[in-house]
C-alpha cells in the first residue's frame, strides 16, 4: 500500500478530484495549506500599499491506495493539476505499512 500526498494549486482541486474518481478512488483527505517553493511568494497591492505574500495558498491531498493503482494515480494527478507554470505543486509517495478501518476492524487493502 502507498500513501500519496499531493500539494496543488487550489483551483485545480475539482479537476484532480474528478480524475481520481474516474479511477475508482473512493476517498481522500483535503487540507488547505500555505507554503512556497521556487515561487518564493509574490507582492500584492492593497489600498495603495504594496506588501509581500511569502506563503501562497495550496491544497494538500492525502490518498491511501493499493500498490497497483500508484502509476495511474500519479498520472491522473499530474495531468489534471498541471498549468505548465511555476508553482504547480509536488507529489510525494510513501510506503504505508498498515491501514485499519475503525468501524469494522478491517485491515490492509480491505480497509482502503
User: Which blocks of ≥5 consecutive residues have pLDDT under 50?
Assistant: none
CATH fold-type name: Alpha-Beta Plaits
Q: Quick one: CATH class?
A: Alpha Beta
Strand-pairing-aware structural class: alpha+beta
The averaged pLDDT comes out at: 90
- The coarse overall form would be elongated
| Radius of gyration, whole Å | 17 Å
The CATH architecture name reads 2-Layer Sandwich
The termini sit apart by: 9 Å
Strand fraction band? 35-45%
In total, the number of domains comes to 1
Order of helices and strands: EHEEEEHE
Helix content: 10-25%
Count every beta strand, where a strand is a DSSP E run of 2 or more residues.
Answer: 6
The major beta sheet can be summarized as:
4 strands, antiparallel
Count up the helices: 2
Q: How are the strands ordered across the major sheet?
A: 2-5-1-6
Structural write-up:
This protein is an alpha+beta fold. The protein has a single domain (2-111), classed as Alpha-Beta Plaits, CATH 3.30.70. Helix content is 20%, strand content 37%. It contains two helices and six strands. It has helices spanning 13-22, 70-81, and strands at residues 2-8, 29-35, 42-46, 49-53, 56-65, 89-95. A four-stranded antiparallel beta sheet has the order 2-5-1-6, with helices on one face. A two-stranded antiparallel sheet has the order 3-4. Strand 3 (42-46) and strand 4 (49-53) form a beta hairpin. Helix 1 (13-22) runs antiparallel to helix 2 (70-81). The chain is elongated. The termini are close together. The relative contact order is 0.31.
Amino acid at each position: 500500500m502507498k500513501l500519496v500526498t499531493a500539494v496543488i494549486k487550489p483551483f485545480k482541486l475539482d479537476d484532480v478530484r474528478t480524475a481520481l474518481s474516474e479511477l475508482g478512488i473512493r476517498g481522500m483527505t483535503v487540507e488547505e495549506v500555505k507554503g512556497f517553493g521556487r515561487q518564493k511568494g509574490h507582492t500584492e497591492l492593497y489600498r495603495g500599499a504594496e506588501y509581500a505574500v511569502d506563503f501562497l495558498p495550496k491544497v494538500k491531498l492525502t490518498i491511501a491506495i493499493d500498490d497497483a493503482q500508484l502509476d495511474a494515480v500519479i498520472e491522473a494527478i499530474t495531468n489534471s493539476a498541471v498549468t505548465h507554470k511555476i508553482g504547480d505543486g509536488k507529489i510525494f509517495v510513501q510506503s504505508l505499512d498498515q491501514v485499519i478501518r475503525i468501524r469494522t476492524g478491517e485491515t490492509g487493502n480491505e480497509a482502503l
